[in-house]
TrEMBL record:
<dbReference type="Pfam" id="PF03009">
    <property type="entry name" value="GDPD"/>
</dbReference>
<protein>
    <submittedName>
        <fullName>Beta-soluble NSF attachment protein</fullName>
    </submittedName>
</protein>
<feature type="domain" description="GP-PDE">
    <location>
        <begin position="291"/>
        <end position="589"/>
    </location>
</feature>
<dbReference type="GO" id="GO:0047389">
    <property type="term" value="F:glycerophosphocholine phosphodiesterase activity"/>
</dbReference>
<dbReference type="InterPro" id="IPR051578">
    <property type="entry name" value="GDPD"/>
</dbReference>
<dbReference type="InterPro" id="IPR030395">
    <property type="entry name" value="GP_PDE_dom"/>
</dbReference>
<dbReference type="InterPro" id="IPR057506">
    <property type="entry name" value="C2_GPCPD1"/>
</dbReference>
<dbReference type="GO" id="GO:0046475">
    <property type="term" value="P:glycerophospholipid catabolic process"/>
</dbReference>
<keyword id="KW-0378">Hydrolase</keyword>
<dbReference type="InterPro" id="IPR013783">
    <property type="entry name" value="Ig-like_fold"/>
</dbReference>
<dbReference type="Pfam" id="PF25329">
    <property type="entry name" value="C2_GDE1"/>
</dbReference>
<comment type="similarity">
    <text>Belongs to the glycerophosphoryl diester phosphodiesterase family.</text>
</comment>
<dbReference type="InterPro" id="IPR017946">
    <property type="entry name" value="PLC-like_Pdiesterase_TIM-brl"/>
</dbReference>
Length: 608
């Protein structure tokens, strides 16, 4: 059989009885007559393994076809040629997506004004100057045998820049000759794809825009006043995958320091413990329906509700929401000390202890969830952190101790096993946030390694989800970017509070407005945003604006608990409504997905 794409594209084949895809390095493929194959075309780069040149190959997926129904062929002749168009177009529909990280690493360097200006100039003559920055990169030279396997297999390291602001975005592209100027309202990000993350020399060139510096005739770039150099090994080998480094800017004419540049870095690695394939992708797929009902923490927040009978984020709460027509249930997932994905809303919990000489009196201690093992979380008597503020111990008294479904801290695996597969999961990936005043969520300035954290949770989901609908979400834009780059199956929404009178402003400028959240979602090519209803109620046109940009829009917040607000949001076309007490609003009934399934089954039966 011949490749259906006219260009020399590589193919991925799915056999009827195969659980993985075969990579084929040419356009002629021999398959058994009478067999059935699904296939997708992909332009790829092929690499030999670094350790063993004779071993299995490695593939870098830059772009691939993502039609929900892949191309298919069932040959009846010994030789069959199929040519149904070009790469990315099948059945007259164009559908492609960017690839995911397979064996390469992505390094991101960011310059922004979230905390303070990224460039600080100490040289008086440049104090009033305006600058442009350009990043260039070089591989650190090492002695290497020209005939060794590692001398010919390496992927070409790529460098691109992207920028976002309230007013829009410019996704990955090459830099102009003298780079870009930095602006307070703009987030500037350099993305590097490489097989050698610890072997790069990254050079920032600083250009003066008004060229007050005397131009030397031999200058390749007039206006160059200084450079700052960063070795990738200085942070890649540290074990920290995100952080900040401050670099001195050296004058081009001397060894004098003329200032410094503050660089925010992020290292994204391929997922460990799971191999993604091309069988099916929902990363950008969304079927438009009327607004979906999403049960907040299952049947709703039990600590904010006065008459709530079911503890939030428990199996009982999720089952209750499922029985009342919830299309999705929303819940937070983070890791225990022994790296078990657990379901709980807050970063901390309260442990109760009895006073030494007073058995009837209890004292509460606030403890980060990450500092307790899964077994400890199951055994200890816990209270919500609000009990610390109001001295209310009712959680400890009313807890349904003898019923497993009512217990807090179920594992993510337990939730998959207990909740019907027809109910979708909106999984918020819990991560710490820094506030504008410099403080951190729950006073936690350090957390897990972000790559490890996500690898564990993503692997759990990918292994257990089956046919269940999954939508990830997170308030941290770096987590959203990582989820998009680490796997190709499930979508993610960027959670944003926008401008709020309820919650304090966050430090990261990407989190500060609904408009820049849209720009971020477009730039990262994720499914959409989950916006704070408080902000949407000020300007309902944001919903249509986001959707016109190809984004899906969910909304969250206490304002969603008002029936009239939900009605308005539905009228304006919101895609998903996350709210409490879904059991009070809905009768016991199957959800929209179950109804659609039953209708399809009846139609099929009537036609057969």
């Amino acid at each position: 059989m011949q490749c259906p794409c006219r260009q020399q594209q590589k193919m991925a084949l799915y056999g009827k009885r195969q659980s993985h895809f075969q990579r084929v390095s040419n356009t002629n493929i021999a398959i058994l007559r009478g067999s059935f194959w699904n296939l997708r075309c992909q332009p790829t780069d092929w690499l030999a393994e670094r350790v063993n040149a004779g071993g299995p190959g490695q593939v870098i997926v830059n772009k691939w076809e993502t039609h929900q129904l892949p191309r298919s062929v069932s040959p009846t002749e010994s030789d069959q040629t199929i040519d149904d168009g070009q790469f990315g177009v099948s059945g007259g529909i164009e559908c492609t997506d960017s690839g995911w990280l397979t064996s390469q690493t992505e390094i991101r360097l960011r310059l922004h004004y979230s905390i303070k200006p990224p460039v600080s100039i100490t040289k008086m003559k440049f104090k009033k100057s305006r600058f442009r920055l350009k990043l260039t990169l070089e591989g650190v030279e090492e002695e290497e045998d020209e005939e060794s396997p590692s001398s010919w297999h390496k992927m070409t390291t790529t460098l691109e820049i992207s920028m976002i602001s309230d007013s829009g975005y410019k996704s990955r592209h090459t830099q102009p000759e003298c780079g870009y100027s930095l602006e307070p309202t703009k987030w500037t990000e350099y993305s590097i794809h490489t097989m050698d993350p610890d072997n790069l020399e990254l050079i920032f060139d600083l250009f003066e825009e008004d060229l007050s510096e005397k131009v030397v005739q031999s200058d390749v770039h007039p206006g160059l006043v200084g450079t700052a150099c960063l070795l990738s090994s200085s942070f890649v080998e540290s074990g920290k995958d995100n952080g900040v480094v401050t670099l001195p800017i050296m004058s081009r004419n001397s060894r004098q320091t003329i200032g410094k540049v503050r660089v925010d870095y992020l290292v994204i690695r391929p997922i460990q413990g799971f191999q993604c394939d091309m069988h099916q992708s929902f990363s950008k797929y969304w079927r438009k329906r009327s607004a979906l009902d999403v049960g907040h923490r299952g049947a709703g927040s039990s600590h904010a509700a006065k008459h709530h009978k079911i503890r939030e984020n428990t199996i009982a709460s999720f089952l209750s929401a499922a029985n009342h027509g919830a299309a999705y249930v929303e819940f937070d997932v983070h890791l225990s000390k022994d790296f078990v994905p657990v379901v709980y809303h807050d970063l901390t919990c309260c442990i109760s202890t009895k006073k030494k000489n007073d058995k009837n009196s209890m004292v509460l201690f606030e403890v980060p969830v990450k500092d307790l093992t899964f077994d400890q979380l199951q055994l200890l008597k816990l209270a919500h952190t609000t009990a610390m503020k109001v001295h209310d111990h009712k959680d400890l008294v009313e807890e349904e101790e003898d019923i497993d479904e009512h217990q807090p801290f179920p594992s993510l695996t337990q939730i998959f096993q207990a909740v019907p597969e027809s109910v979708g999961f909106n999984i918020e990936l819990k991560w710490i946030s820094q506030l504008k005043d410099g403080s951190w969520d729950a006073n936690l300035s350090t957390y897990f390694n972000m790559n490890q954290f996500l690898d564990i949770i993503l692997t759990c989901v990918l292994q257990n989800a089956g046919k269940r609908r999954i939508v990830f979400s997170c308030f941290d834009p770096d987590v959203c970017a990582m989820v998009r780059r680490k796997q190709n199956k499930y979508p993610i929404l960027f959670l944003t509070q926008g401008v709020s009178d309820v919650y304090p402003e966050l430090m990261d400028i990407r989190c500060q407005t609904t408009q820049i959240a849209m720009s971020f979602a477009q730039s990262e090519d994720i499914l959409g945003i989950s916006a704070h209803t408080e902000d949407l109620l000020r300007n309902m046109d944001c919903i249509k604006e986001a959707q016109s940009k190809g984004l899906v829009v969910f909304c969250w917040g206490d304002d969603n608990n008002d029936h009239e607000n939900r009605r308005k949001l539905r009228e304006h076309g919101i895609d998903g409504l996350i709210y409490d007490r879904i059991c009070d609003d809905q009768l016991e009934q199957p959800n929209i997905f179950k109804v659609e399934e039953q209708v399809s089954l009846k139609e099929w039966e009537s036609q057969s």
